[in-house]
Amino acid sequence: MKKMQEIREVDSKNRNPVQRALGKLAMDFLDYEMIMGHFDFARDPFGGLAATVPTDILAAGESGKVSVAALVPKIQAHLQAHPEAAAPMNNPWLREYFRAVLGALMSGNSETVLRIFPPDDQKVEIWYGPGSVLQTAIEGTAAKADELKLLAEYENIYRSRMDVAKFKNSLERFTIMW
Which end of the chain has the smaller Cβ count within 10 Å, N or C? Predict the structure, then answer.
C-alpha cells in the first residue's frame, strides 16, 4: 500500500508496466479486504468492544447473539439522545461500528456500494444494501421495517452458513422477501 501511494503520484499515462501491475494488485487487495470484511456487521459489529457499548443499545453479555438489525434503531436512538457520543474518534465502539458499516457497504464510493435489497417502492429503481441500512443508525434517518427485515434475513444467511439445510432455508426466505 505504501508503494501504491508512490504510484498514485505518477500520472496514469506515464506509469510503467510494473507500476500498473502494482496498482492493480493494490486495488485487488482492497477489493479482497472489502469482501472479507463484508459480514463483520454480523460477526461482531463492535469489533470486540461489546462490553463498552451502552446498555440502552446492548445488554451485558449479548454481544455475539443479537442481530445487528435489532440494534440499528437502538444505536440511532442512543446517538440522538447523546449527541456527544456521536464522535467516533472518542467512542471506540462507534468507531468499530463505522468499520463494520464500511465493510457492509463494500465500498467507500456511494456509486459502487453493494446493492442487493430491492426498493419497497416499485417506482424507485435504486436498490440498496446491508451497509445502507446499517448507515441509517449513524445518519439519523430511521430505517424502515422492511429494510430491517431484509437485513435480519441477510444476517441469517451468514449465521446459518455452517448448516446446509438452515443456509438453504435462509436463502429461500431472503429471496421470497423480494
Answer: N
